[in-house]
UniProtKB/TrEMBL annotation:
Residues 148-396 form the VWFA domain. The lineage of its organism: Bacteria, Pseudomonadati, Pseudomonadota, Alphaproteobacteria, Hyphomicrobiales. It comes from Alsobacter sp. KACC 23698. SUPFAM superfamilies: vWA-like (SSF53300). InterPro entries: Tad_N, VWF_A, vWFA_dom_sf. This is Pilus assembly protein. CDD domains: vWFA.
Length: 407
C-alpha cells in the first residue's frame, strides 16, 4: 500500500489528512526536480552531439549530396549521442525520438544541425505535464581547401636505372592520388622541379622574361636552350626578387634534364612531364630547393602560387635526392654546398611561408642534412631500396589529402 493510501485510510484524526495534503506538493516538487535534472542532462548531451556532428559533417560537406549529408549526419549524431547516454530507462525512447527529428543541411558554406524532441517525464505528469520540449542546434563553416605541391626531384646521373624508373612510378602515383582527391577546378595544383647542377625551363616560353639575366654569361637569347644556374651568393637560396636568374647558353650536361613545370592542375600533363625525366649530371640540392620555393611563390618567376600564409591554402614541398652535393656554380666544395643547402631548407621552412617540407633520401646522401631539412622528423624518409619509393609517395599523398581538403 502506498504512503498516500495508508494516510488516506488512517482514522487517527485530521492531522494525518493534513499531513497527506501537505506532503503531496512536496513529493511533486522533488519528482519534478528529478525530471528537470534528467531533461537538463539530455539537453547538454544533445548540444554536444549537435556540435560534434556539425564539425564532422563540415569535413565532408563538399563531397556529399544533400541526401547523403542527412543520412551520414543522422548516423554520426546517433553514435555521438549514444556514447554519452546509456540505453536504460526512459532515456532510450527519448533518444530514439530525438534521432528521428534530426535535420542536417548546408546553406552556402555552413553546415546546420537541428534537433528537436520531447522528453517524456516521470513525475511531472502527475501535474499534467507529460513531456518537456528539448532542442539543440550546431553550425560549422566549411569550404574547399586548396593545395599546392612542389615536386623537387633529383635527376642526376646516379639516379639512373631502377631509381629513376621507380621515382617516375611513385611520382605519378602521387599525382593520380591528388587528382582523385581534387573535387573542384584548381583545388589542387602541382609543380615539377627536376634538378642536377642546374634547372631547365621551356626556352620558347620564357626567353623574353625580365627576371632572366642573359648578360652575365654572354648568352644569345635567340639560341638559349633554357638552362639556368645559381643566382649570385646571397640570393641563390631564396626567392628574393632583387636578383635575376642567370641563364647559361647550353645545359652543362646537355639538354636531357627534364623541363620544370609551374603549378598546374593539368594532372595528365604532369604525368607526361614526369615520364620525360632522365638521369644526368651532378648534384646541387640548393638550386632544386630554391626553384621549388619559387614555384610556390606568388611572385616572379612563375607567379602561380597563392600568397604565402593565405587562409585556406596549404603548401607542400617534396624534395628527393640520392646523393651528396657535388657541384654548383661556385665550385665543388661539399661543405660549402651543404651550408647553402641548409640555408635553402631554412628559407623554405620560414614560418611566414607555411610550407610543409618533406625530404626523401634514396640510399645515399647526407642523412643528417636531409633529416634536418624536413619540417619535422616525421617528414623525413630514409629509403634503402628504390622499390620503396611508391609506398613513400603514396603515404605522403594520403597524408596530404586525408586532412587538408576541408576546413
Amino acid at each position: 500500500m502506498s504512503i498516500l493510501k495508508r494516510l488516506a485510510s488512517d482514522d487517527r484524526g485530521s492531522v494525518n489528512v493534513m499531513f497527506a495534503v501537505a506532503i503531496l506538493p512536496l513529493l511533486l516538487a522533488v519528482g519534478s526536480a528529478v525530471d528537470y535534472d534528467r531533461a537538463t542532462g539530455i539537453q547538454a548531451r544533445l548540444q554536444s552531439a549537435a556540435d560534434s556532428t556539425a564539425l564532422a559533417m563540415a569535413k565532408q560537406a563538399g563531397q556529399l549530396t544533400d541526401a547523403d549529408l542527412q543520412a551520414k549526419g543522422v548516423d554520426y549524431f546517433e553514435g555521438a549521442f549514444s556514447s554519452q547516454w546509456s540505453n536504460a530507462g526512459p532515456n532510450r525512447s527519448a533518444r530514439q525520438f530525438l534521432r528521428n527529428s534530426l535535420t542536417v543541411t548546408k546553406t552556402g558554406k555552413t553546415v546546420n544541425v537541428d534537433v528537436k524532441g520531447l522528453y517524456p517525464t516521470t513525475f511531472m505528469k502527475l501535474a499534467g505535464l507529460n513531456d518537456v520540449a528539448l532542442a539543440a542546434s550546431g553550425q560549422a563553416a566549411w569550404g574547399t581547401r586548396k593545395i599546392e605541391v612542389a615536386l623537387v626531384l633529383d635527376n642526376t646521373g646516379s639516379m639512373a636505372g631502377a631509381k629513376i624508373t621507380e621515382l617516375k612510378k611513385a611520382a605519378k602515383t602521387l599525382v593520380s592520388t591528388l587528382e582523385t582527391a581534387s573535387k573542384e577546378p584548381d583545388q589542387i595544383k602541382i609543380a615539377l622541379v627536376p634538378f642536377n647542377t642546374q634547372v631547365h625551363m621551356d626556352a620558347a616560353a620564357y626567353r623574353n622574361e625580365t627576371w632572366l639575366d642573359f648578360a652575365s654569361y654572354g648568352v644569345n637569347k635567340a639560341t638559349w636552350t633554357g638552362c639556368v644556374t645559381d643566382r649570385n651568393s646571397g640570393y641563390d637560396t631564396n626567392d628574393d626578387p632583387m636578383a635575376k636568374y642567370p641563364a647559361v647558353q647550353s645545359c652543362t650536361f646537355g639538354n636531357q634534364l627534364a623541363l620544370m613545370s609551374p603549378l598546374s592542375s593539368n594532372f595528365g600533363g604532369m604525368r607526361t612531364s614526369i615520364d620525360s625525366m632522365s638521369a644526368t649530371g651532378n648534384t646541387n640540392i640548393a638550386i632544386g630547393l630554391a626553384w621549388g620555393l619559387a614555384s610556390l611563390s606568388p611572385g616572379a618567376p612563375f607567379t602561380g602560387g597563392a600568397a604565402f600564409g593565405t587562409s585556406g591554402v596549404d603548401k607542400f614541398m617534396i624534395m628527393l635526392t640520392d646523393g651528396d652535393n657535388t657541384q654548383n656554380r661556385f665550385g665543388d666544395s661539399v661543405y660549402q654546398m651543404d651550408q647553402r643547402t641548409k640555408l635553402a631548407c631554412d628559407e623554405v621552412k620560414k614560418s611566414a611561408n607555411k610550407i610543409a617540407l618533406y625530404t626523401i633520401r634514396v640510399m645515399n646522401g647526407n642523412a643528417a642534412l636531409l633529416k634536418n631539412c624536413a619540417s619535422d622528423p616525421s617528414k623525413y624518409y630514409d629509403v634503402t631500396s628504390a622499390s620503396q619509393l611508391n609506398g613513400v609517395f603514396q603515404q605522403i599523398a594520403d597524408e596530404i589529402t586525408s586532412i587538408r581538403l576541408t576546413m
